[in-house]
């Protein structure tokens, strides 16, 4: 698949209740860490599902309850943002560095559905390998 879903995230109005519910329901391993995004504060709960796509949970910074957000993996987030805007998407959160992990952006598609883009940071050796493959 060219651009798979790589991460799912729960923005919740009650982080403690969500952790208890999903942890008990599915047996997910949950571990807390500080939010690594620029300007982020609070707790981010990593979701380890074992096999398959994992994710995270965090307190929703905007009023409006709880919702899941799916992240699509991309190789070049700037190019993907440009293309998405040309196709009618609106940017909710522009490219944001997430610690040493990668870069994300949140968009709304032309139908009103939100989704996120994710470009992982590559180690120096990975960049050289990709360049030499071209």
Query: What share of residues are in beta strands?
Result: 35-45%
In whole angstroms, the N-to-C terminal distance is: 20 Å
Q: What's the arrangement of strands in the largest beta sheet?
A: 2-3-4-1-5-8-7-6
Write down the CATH class: Alpha Beta
Mean pLDDT: 88
Form type: globular
By secondary-structure content and strand pairing, the structural class works out as alpha+beta
Rg from C-alpha positions?
A: 16 Å
User: Could you describe the largest sheet, including whether it forms a barrel?
Assistant: 8 strands, mixed
Per CATH, which architecture?
Answer: Roll
What would your notes on this structure say?
With 134 residues, the protein is an alpha+beta fold. The protein has one domain (5-133): 2,3-Dihydroxybiphenyl 1,2-Dioxygenase, domain 1 (Roll). Helix content is 24%, strand content 41%. The protein contains three helices and eight strands. The chain has helices at residues 15-26, 77-86, 124-133; strands spanning 5-12, 29-34, 43-48, 55-59, 67-73, 90-98, 102-108, 114-120. An eight-stranded mixed β-sheet has the order 2-3-4-1-5-8-7-6. A hairpin with a 6-residue loop joins strand 3 (43-48) and strand 4. The longest helix has 12 residues, at 15-26. It starts with a strand and ends with a helix.
List keywords for this structure.
3 helices; 24% helix; 134 residues; alpha+beta; 2,3-Dihydroxybiphenyl 1,2-Dioxygenase, domain 1; single chain; 8-stranded mixed beta sheet
